[in-house]
Every structure is written in structure tokens, then in C-alpha cells.
Design a protein that fits this description.
The protein has 144 residues and is mainly alpha-helical. Helix content is 81%, strand content 0%.
Length: 144
């Protein structure tokens, strides 16, 4: 990682990315993916950075932090449709109400950009109905 930083400072893009891309540990952790992605973004290689974040999400599908990092990055790069999809994945994986509200706020911004706010409301209403139906089915089983 140190060599990659030095090469990046010297303006040698390919030389900076090569050690960062080849020095992965046998089981890379999220910080390796994030480091490589940030390096790619700094060097103007956005697509490679996004690919690194996507690999991190595939390697750690239940880690909402990395999912949100990918979604935020996609939204910042105006890849709205994919960002919305990834935010919904984060919404489904988190149980904490505050985190869910944060995700809904971000989703609202993106849906407003696309002039499709009604779709957000519809999807949230469908999810609420499904959750209520699931809660009703659980109640009779507990009484038995």
C-alpha cells in the first residue's frame, strides 16, 4: 500500500495501481477493497474503483457499511438506478430504525432526482403490508 501511495503522488497511475491490485491477502478484508477503490478514484479510474466496491459487497453481502459505501459512491457518480437498488439492499439488511430512516432519506433524494417519488412511497407501502402480514401469521403460531 505504501508503494502505491508513493507512485500515485508521483503521478504514475499504472504503477500505483499495480502493487495495490496484486498485493491482496489470501482473504481480502473490506479495508483492502475500500483502499483500492479510493486509490482508483483518486487516479481517475472510477470504474475500477466501483468494481472494487462491488467485489467487497459480494464478499461481505451482510455488511451494511460497505453496501452503503457502494450506494453512496454510485449516487455521487450519477449512477442513480444502481444506487437505488443498492440502497434497497441496505434497507432490507438493517434492523435499526435510525439506519432505515437514513437509507429512506437517501432513497427519497434519488427518487426525487428521477421524478419518481411515488414509486418510493408505493414500495414502502408494499413492504409495510408484507411486514404486517408476516406479523399476523406469527401471532397464531405463538398461541398454539
Amino acid at each position: 500500500m505504501g508503494i502505491a501511495k508513493i507512485e500515485a503522488r508521483l503521478g504514475r497511475t499504472d504503477a500505483a495501481l499495480k502493487p495495490a491490485a496484486t498485493c491482496w491477502p489470501p482473504r481480502p478484508v473490506i479495508r483492502h477493497y475500500e483502499y483500492f477503490a479510493q486509490l482508483c478514484f483518486q487516479l481517475g479510474r472510477s470504474e475500477e474503483g466501483l468494481d472494487s466496491l462491488r467485489r467487497a459487497v459480494r464478499a461481505n453481502p451482510n455488511d451494511t457499511k460497505i453496501i452503503l459505501t457502494l450506494a453512496d459512491t454510485l449516487a455521487g457518480q450519477y449512477q442513480t438506478d444502481e444506487a437505488i437498488e443498492i440502497y434497497w439492499r441496505a434497507f432490507d439488511r438493517t434492523e435499526d430504525l435510525d439506519h432505515k430512516l437514513d437509507v429512506v432519506r437517501k432513497l427519497a433524494e434519488l427518487y426525487l432526482q428521477k421524478n419518481q417519488f411515488d414509486r418510493l412511497l408505493t414500495r414502502l407501502q408494499h413492504q409495510e403490508r408484507e411486514e404486517r402480514a408476516g406479523a399476523v401469521q406469527i401471532q397464531p403460531q405463538r398461541q398454539a
